[in-house]
Amino acid sequence: MLDLSKEIITVECDCGRSHSATFQDTINGRIINCSCGANIQLKDDGSVKKGVNEINKAFKDLENAFKKIGR
Fold first, then answer.
1. Which of 19, 67, 68, 71 is deepest in the core (most CB within 10 A)?
2. Which DSSP string corresponds to the chain?
């Protein structure tokens, strides 16, 4: 099953460097330290967590539907 919280996103610093993070990192409020000295605080106002949970549930429901068809 697909777990959207493990999907990798790209976060850019003001200096232009790109950093990789996951949706789970955003949910957890991870701080990314850029080599330019900046700290990038990932924030979630609740929408990322809600979206990840809803999409994961939809995929789980779809998987269960396919299992029922296969019987």
1. 19
2. ---GGG-EEEEE-TTS-EEEEEHHHHHHT-EEE-TTS-EEE----SHHHHHHHHHHHHHHHHHHHHHHHT-
